[in-house]
Amino acid sequence: MIAKRTTGWLAAALLACAGGAWGGEGVVGGFGGPLVRIGSTADDTVVFAGGRGGALFASGFYFGGEGAGALNTIADDRRLGYGGVFAGLWMPAGAVTDWALEVMVGGGGLGRR
User: Fold this and answer.
1) Dihedrals φ, ψ of 12, to 5°?
2) Average model confidence (pLDDT) for the chain?
3) Which H or E run includes 72?
4) What is the widest separation between alpha-carbon atoms in the chain?
5) Residue 47: per-residue pLDDT
6) What is the secondary structure of 7-56 as a DSSP string?
7) Contact status, residue 108 vs residue 84, Cβ threshold 8 Å
8) pLDDT tens-digit readout, 23-78
9) Phi/psi of residue 77, each to 5°?
């Protein structure tokens, strides 16, 4: 039930941004590239590698997808991986800094090597 509500809200927001309903002119461009993240479990440090990409609208709203898998194994020779979608609001703050507020929804997996 929650997934249906979230999907409906996200679809409405994307349509509004694509049409410039929030004061923009529609899609400005896209972004994407490699991703490296470091995390930890109770006993191990995990290095993730993957990718991230999305679309940026003139209103400052953006959305896309991200996914990564662990480069190393953790206890009992297990591997980790995750993926999902994200949405956010990008706010330029000056010539050198920017602010962003972002939410990611996704899932992950744990398995043997």
Assistant:
1) -65, -40
2) 80
3) none
4) 53
5) 92
6) HHHHHHHHHHHHTTTTSS-SEEEEEEEEEEEEEE-SS-EEEEEEEEEEEE
7) no
8) 455 668 889 999 999 988 788 888 999 999 999 888 889 999 999 999 988 877 88
9) 60, 45
Predicted model pTM = 0.67
Type and span of the H or E element at 60: none
Could you tell me which of 64, 51, 77 has the C-alpha nearest to residue 14? 64
More confidently predicted of 81 and 9: 81
Under a CB-based contact definition with an 8 Å cutoff, are residues 62 and 55 in contact?
Answer: yes
Single-letter residue type at 80: L
Q: How far apart are CA 68 and CA 86, in angstroms?
A: 14
Sign of CA dihedral 1, 90, 46, 65: positive
Tell me the residue type at 105.
V
Given a contact cutoff of 8 angstroms between Cβ atoms, the answer to whether 54 and 62 are in contact is: yes
